[in-house]
Amino acid sequence: MPIEAQPLTGVFAAEVHGLDLVNLDGDDLAQLRALMCEHEVLVVRGQTLDPSQQSAFSSRLGPCGEVPFIATMDEFPEVIRVVKEAEEGAAFNFGGAWHSDFSFQAEPPSFTILSAVDVPAWGGDTCFASMTAAWNALHEPMRERLRQLNAVHSARDAYSPKMQALHTGMSGMQIVCDESANEYEIHPLVPVHPETRKEVLYFNRAYVRDIENMTNDEAESLMAFLHLHTTDVKFMYRHRWQAGDVVIWDNRSTQHVALNDYAGFRRELRRTTIAGESPKR
Ligand code: SIN
Predict the structure, then answer these.
(1) Does some domain include residue 87?
(2) What integer pLDDT is reported at residue 168 of this predicted model?
(3) pLDDT, tens digit (0-9, with 9 covering 90-100), for 248-264
(4) Which atom of ligand 1 lies at the shortest distance from residue 258's CA?
(5) Does the predicted model carry a pTM greater than 0.70?
(6) What residue owns the CA closest to ligand 1's atom 6?
(7) Number of helices followed by number of strands (H, E) in the chain
(8) Structural domain for 213, as ranges
(9) Which of 32, 127, 226, 262 is the most exposed place for a label (fewest CB within 10 A)?
(10) Residues near 259 by Cβ (< 8 Å), separated by ≥ 6?
(11) Which residue owns the Cα nearest ligand 1 atom 2?
C-alpha cells in the first residue's frame, strides 16, 4: 500500500498517518525514505518510541552518525537526550541557533530523527527552513555566483573551550567543549543532494563561519544575506510538538532552530542522526 503524505505547507514538510515505525516492512521503509527526501521534513505522530526502538528504527535508515561534544545515553551511545528542565528557565537552549546538524563534520549526517517524550504545554516549537526552496527562489545570476563558492564550516563558536561556560546550567544534558571544535571543513555552498540530485543551498549561520576566497567584509555580507534569505518565513515549517511525535528531517536540504519560549515547563526529546556523506557539487 502506498504511504500517503499530507503536505503541511505549500512549500515542504508533510505528515504521514497510520505508520508504526517499530514494525515497518522493507517496502514501507523504502517508501518512507523517498518521502523523507521529497518532503524534507516528515511528521509521524503517536509513536512513543523508547530509546532501543528509536535506535533500531534509525539503524534501518543507515549507520548512526558520530556524535561529538554532547554526552549520549549510557546504554545507547547513538541517542542524545535533548532536555531542559522546568526550572532551568533561560539556561542554554540546545539547537537554539539556525543550523544543520553537525555540518562542520567531513561527512555530516543525512537525516535526524527527533522523538518527543515530554513537551511543554506551549512553546518549544522547532522551525525548519527548506534550503531547496530558498535556492530555487534565487535568480540565476546569483545562483551562478554561489555555485562557484565553498563555505568554511566550524563548531568553534558552539563547542570550543571558550563556549564551555554557556553550556553550564543544564542538568539534563552534558556538553563537553574541546579544541577539536576549532577545526574546520570546507563544503561547497551549493552541493547536489545525493539522493534527489537537486541543487541545495548548504548554509547555516551557526556553523558556516567564512566563505573561501573572500575578504572578511565580503564573506560577512554574503553570510548575512544568506541567513536572512534562507530563514524567511516563506521557506518555513514550524512544528508544534505533541508527546509521541517523531519528526524526521533531511539535514542535506534543511536547517532548523529550537525556540526557547517555554520557561516553567519541561521539554525532553530524543535525537538520533544517520551518517551521511561529504557534500559534493
Ligand atoms: C536539534 O537541534 O537537534 C534539537 C532541535 C529541538 O530541540 O527542537
Answers:
(1) yes
(2) 83
(3) 999 999 999 999 999 99
(4) 8
(5) yes
(6) 258
(7) 6, 13
(8) 5-274
(9) 127
(10) 96, 123, 124, 125, 126, 127
(11) 95
Q: Let me know if residue 49 belongs to a domain.
A: yes
Number of CB atoms found within 10 A of residue 269's CB: 25
**Does 116 contact ligand 1 (Cβ within 6 A)?**
no
Alpha-carbon dihedral angle through residues 252, 72, 116, 260, given to the nearest 10 degrees: -80
Find the CATH number of the domain harbouring 111: 3.60.130.10
Q: Pairing state of beta strands 246-250 and 111-118?
A: antiparallel
Inside any domain, residue 123? yes
β-sheet bridge partners, residue 185: 153
* Count of domains observed in the chain: 1
Cell digits for 29? 521503509
Q: Model confidence over 107-154: pLDDT tens digits?
A: 999 999 999 999 999 999 999 999 999 999 999 999 999 999 999 999
Residue type, 24: L
Q: Does residue 271 have its Cβ closer than 6 Å to ligand 1?
A: yes
How far is the C-alpha of 162 from the C-alpha of 160, rounded, in Å? 6
